[in-house]
Design a protein that fits this description.
Blueprint lengths: L11 E6 L3 H12 L3 E7 L3 H10 L4 E3 L2 H7 L4 E4 L6 H10 L4 E4 L6 H14 L3 E4 L6 H11 L6 E9 L11 H17 L5 E7 L9 E7 L5 E7 L6 E8 L2 E6 L4 E6 L7 E3 L3 E3 L4 E4 L6 H15 L7 H20 L3 E2 L3 H6 L2
Parallel strand pairs: 1-2, 1-4, 2-3, 4-5, 5-6, 7-10
Antiparallel strand pairs: 7-11, 8-9, 8-17, 9-10, 11-12, 12-13, 13-16, 14-15
Helix pairs in contact: 4-5, 5-9, 7-9
Length: 350
């Protein structure tokens, strides 16, 4: 295992690869922190490097990400490059014993993700994966309420992640790019991995990949997950619903609002507009302290670097997300459910 950084309280030296939308946000947050310094930044676009220099003037600038890893001594590395570049960069960092945070998805394929997991385990180098929704304070509060037994049985989990097409994403489709968020969250809420998946996809405006996914996940406990993920909706929507025996949680990732609707007394319906019966139970607004999820994610990653602990979302979680998303694509392509019951055994042996 990589030793924790113990340089007498000195700021951590952080390298950043990729200055797209997520990379710029990482840079913004890291540059404001007193406990770390951005010592090197890499991006092939000169204008992006020049903009980064204005935010982190002490950072060395590289066009080649692998040159940064080879030439600069860093305590930690954040990888926010295009998905297809993740594996090579992450593997190079692990080989040099550098703890790394890889933006989701961990890799563009199951094989690449499995290679990263193998390297992380064999070298004892922590690899965190940027499933940022796990750090959303509303999601964390939902997790606490579920742990406290607010729902004794989970019946169904529904996730909607929709918005306009981001022209910058060309290397993968909406399933690998966005649905990896949701398959990770649904598995985390269910407390287990799905045993079977099915999906329908469509390609409407993307030139190379699918931009719409409807997916179904069946969990061993009997819980069902449903995904609505697309790049076709004109307004951004990020919503989660968890239905169980005692009621229903509703969560908005964007506003960080969380409510719980208790199961109603079905013997005494109320009427909508005087004629339409409804059985809606009382709604509880659950307090959530607003936090920027990406800042919380970086907090957790840098704590791993300092202490040598385990990432909250590690390479195995990242591999599962890619594997489930890839299975959804396979199900859509083959027009049949895909069984995942032996996937856990295969991942354990990788």
């Amino acid at each position: 295992m990589v030793d924790p950084v113990t340089r007498a309280g000195a700021p951590l030296r952080v390298g950043l690869i990729g200055l797209g939308s997520m990379g710029r946000n990482h840079l913004r947050i890291l540059a404001r922190r007193a406990d770390c310094r951005v010592v090197a930044v890499a991006d092939p676009v000169a204008e992006a490097r020049a903009s980064a220099a204005a935010v982190a003037p002490e950072a060395s600038l590289f066009a080649d990400p692998l040159a940064l890893v080879a030439e600069v001594e860093v305590d930690a590395l954040v990888v926010a490059s295009p998905t297809t570049a993740h594996a090579e960069i992450a593997l190079t960092a692990v080989e040099r014993a550098i703890p790394v945070l890889v933006e989701k998805p961990l890799a563009a394929s199951v094989e690449e993700a499995a290679e990263i997991l193998r390297a992380s385990r064999s070298r004892g180098v922590p690899v965190a994966v940027g499933h940022v929704e796990r750090f959303n304070p509303a999601v964390r509060e939902l997790g606490r309420r579920l742990a406290d037994g607010w729902l004794s049985t989970i019946y169904a989990i529904t996730s909607r992640r929709a918005g306009p097409f981001p022209a910058r994403i060309r290397d993968v489709g909406v399933t690998i790019d966005l649905a990896t968020h949701d398959v990770d969250i649904l598995s985390w809420i269910a407390g287990e991995r799905p045993a079977r998946v099915y999906a329908e996809t469509a390609q409407r405006i993307h030139t190379d990949h699918e931009d719409l996914l409807f997916g179904l996940l069946h969990f061993p406990s009997g819980a069902t997950g449903m995904l609505d993920v697309n790049w076709l909706t004109p307004a951004k929507r990020r919503q989660l619903v968890v239905v169980g025996e005692e009621g229903m949680f509703e969560l908005d990732y964007l506003t960080q609002r969380l409510t719980f609707t208790r199961s109603p007394d079905v013997a005494h319906p109320t009427l909508i507009r005087g004629y339409a019966p409804t059985f809606e139970g009382p709604v509880v607004e659950i307090p959530v302290e607003a936090v920027e999820p990406l800042a919380a994610e970086l907090d957790a990653f840098l704590e791993v670097v300092r202490t040598g602990g385990e990432p909250l979302v590690d390479a195995e979680d990242g591999l599962w997300a890619v594997a489930i998303a890839s299975s959804l694509l396979r199900a859509a392509s083959e027009r049949r459910p895909v069984d995942l019951s032996d996937l856990a055994a295969r991942i354990a042996t990788r």
